[in-house]
Amino acid sequence: MTDTSKPIAHSVAIIGGGPAGLMAAEVLALAGVRVDLYDAMPSVGRKFLLAGVGGMNITHSEPYPAFAARYAERQPQVDALLQGFDADALREWIHGLGIETFVGTSGRVFPTDMKAAPLLRAWLKRLREAGVQLHNRHRWLGWNADGSLRVHAPEGERAVQADAVLLALGGGSWPRLGSDGSWVAHLQHAGIAVAPLQPSNCGFDVAAWSPLLREKFAGAPLKNVALGLQGEALRQGEFVLTATGVEGSLVYALSAGIRQRIARDGRCVVHLDLLPQRSEDALGQALSKPRGSHSMAKHLHRQAGLDGAKAALLRELAPAEHFADPLRLAASIKALPIELRRPRPLEEAISSAGGVPFEALDEALMLTALPGTFCAGEMLDWEAPTGGYLLTACFASGRVAGQGIVRWLQSTNR
Predict the structure, then answer these.
(1) Low-confidence residues of the chain, pLDDT below 50?
(2) Where is the RsdA/BaiN/AoA(So)-like Rossmann fold-like domain positioned along the sequence (predicted)?
(3) What are phi and psi of 73, to 5 degrees?
(4) Residue 207, CB-side half-sphere exposure with 13 Å CA sphere
(5) What pLDDT, on the 0 to 100 scale, is given for residue 311?
(6) Which residue from 5, 137, 204, 387 has the highest number of Cβ atoms inside 10 Å of its Cβ?
(7) What pLDDT is stored for residue 2 in this prediction?
(8) For the chain, where do the domains classified as CATH 3.50.50.60 start and end?
(9) Can you tell me the distance from the alpha carbon of 211 to that of 19, in angstroms, rounded to the nearest whole number?
C-alpha cells in the first residue's frame, strides 16, 4: 500500500472512469489527494459493466508463471505491474468490498452472483466516501497553451488545472461505451508517439463461406475442438462460426498471432482438430469400416460422432476426394485448415492492441516527455487474451500509476 501517513494537499485530474482510472482514484484519495475524475459517458464503468454480461470474469486462478506468460512480448512490463497487485491481491480487494468470488471449472474467477453491477456500486460508494469527485459527460479535448486540460462539459468547454494528470482512456474497441481512441490525436499533437490501435480478442473473416454454411450454421458453436497456428501447439476450447468467419474464446486466444501473420502475409491459416479426444489412427480405422447403404453424413455420425456444424465445416473445407479415402478424411478431421483473411473491425473487438508504448513511460507510468502526466489501463501498448487477464492488468496499472503520482507529488513538493 502507498504510505498514507503524510496527507498531501494536491489535486489530481483523472481522465477515464474504467477500472484503471477508478483504482488510481482510490489510491490517491487514500493518500489525501483531491481527486476529480472526468468521464465522457453519462456514468462510469460502462465497458466494465458490459464485460459482466453473461458472467463477470474478473481474473484467473492459474499459477503465476502461466498467468504472466499470457501477456506475451509485454510480459516483462506487465509483470512489473502485477508484482504489487496480482490475481490473488485483486480477489482480496474485491472481498474487501463485500463481494465474494469463486473459481469456475475453467480456472476463471467470478463474483459469486456473476454480476459486475454490485461490485461497481460498492466500489463507487467507497470512492465517494473517500472524497473522489466524479464528473460525467466531461470529454477531454487535449491541452490548452498554458498546460491546463481542455474539457468539454455539458455547460460548455472549461479549463481544468491539476497538479498531476492520469490518462486512463481505454483503447479503441466498443466506442459507443466511451473507448473510441480519440485520445490518440491529442497525444500525437503533444509529440507522444502512439502505436496504432488494432483489434484484439476479435473475430476474423474468411474469404467467403458457402451460402449453405452461412445460412444454416452462422452462430453455431464448435465445442471441444482444438485450434492452432502453423508450427504451434493446438489449444483446446470452443469458438463460433459467423456469417463472415470465426470468433469466440479459442479464436481470441490466438488473435495476436493471427493478426500478425495476416499483416505479414496477407493471410493466416489456422488448423482445426474437430475431435482432439481421438487419435488420427483410431479415426482412420473407424472410418474405414464399411458404410454399406448409409450416407457419408450418417457414416461420420456413427463412426466419428461428427454432425451439425462440425460436419458442415468438414464438408466446406476438406477436399472432395478425401471423402473417398478414410485415412485422408481422418487427417482432415484432425487438421482442417481455415484460411483467415482479415480481423473484424476495431469497434467490434473486445479489446485493442497498440497505444502508448511502455518505452515512453517511466516505471511509475509517467510520460517522460510530459512530467506529471501518467497513463494506465488499456491505452497502454499491451494485450492479453480474455479470461480475466485484461481486467487484472488494468487494475494493476491503475494502482501503479496512482502510487507513482503520490510519490511524484511528494518528491516535487508541488
Answers:
(1) 1-6
(2) 11-403
(3) -70, -15
(4) 8
(5) 96
(6) 204
(7) 46
(8) 11-199+350-413
(9) 42
CA–CA separation, 373 vs 12, rounded Å? 10
State residue 330 phi and psi, 5-degree precision: -60, -40
Given CA atoms 316, 322, 325, 326 in this order, what sign does their dihedral have?
Answer: negative
Q: 11-199+350-413 in CATH: which number?
A: 3.50.50.60
d(CA 363, CA 146): 27
Q: Which of 277, 280, 279 has the alpha carbon at shortest distance from 322?
A: 280
The whole-number pLDDT of residue 5 equals 45
Secondary structure of 164-188 as H, E, C letters: EEEECCCCCCCHHHCCCCCHHHHHH
Q: How many residues does the chain have?
A: 414
- Angle between helix 87-96 and helix 389-412 axes, rounded to 10 deg: 80
Which ranges of 148-307 would DSSP assign to H, the alpha helix? 183-189, 211-217, 249-253, 255-265, 280-287, 296-304
Angle at which helix 19-30 crosses helix 389-412, to 10 degrees, equals 40
Report pTM.
0.90
Q: What is the pLDDT of residues 195-210, one digit of tens each?
A: 999 999 999 999 999 9
Q: What is the pLDDT of residue 414?
A: 55
Cα–Cα distance, 58 to 76 (Å, whole number): 22
Q: Which amino acid is at 8?
A: I
CA distance 399 to 222: 39
For residue 186, what are the contacts with CB-CB under 8 A and spacing of at least 6? 140, 141, 142, 143
Tell me the CA distances in angstroms from 296 to 153, 284, 286, 312, 324, one per residue in order.
65, 14, 13, 12, 9
Question: Closest by alpha carbon to 204, among 245, 253, 250?
Answer: 245
Report CA torsion sign: 69, 388, 48, 23: negative
